[in-house]
Amino acid sequence: MTQLIRTAALVSAMATAAVAGPKVSEIDVTADLSAIENHSAAAVWTSLETDLETALAERLIGQIADADTEGAEIHVEIDSVLLASNFEQALGVGEWVLKGDVDIDMPDASKDMRYDLTVSADQLDAYYPEGTDPATVTVDSDAFYSAIIGAFAGNVASKLK
Length: 161
Description:
By secondary structure, the chain is an alpha+beta fold.
């Protein structure tokens, strides 16, 4: 019986460690905000780099490495922010998109990940606050901004779980 309990405890500890994912030692986001042509949206998007770094850190809070621990390094380069006006969006001639290159360097280089990530407005319904009508959300609203940051950060963080 004691052996069974020890085995169960060991399996449980291993499962917890596996679920926790790798430690993260660096999160770096760069963005070229000159791509934003919608002036009212540009006022909301001024802190994109910092806000995306913060959103990633919040989702990986249990995986942040100590200063002397080697961990995964996350580098995101936002290369496209398409923010059509509501009029263009309604006409179907413009879209709302946040696109970037994601580079996750793991301590074991064979597990490195590199991919392009595009988050668009049609993927955001689950990220809006409860009771938000997606049809009324505008590109310069805090709800849209928070949702697109949350969706982008959620995808990157899911790769490290």
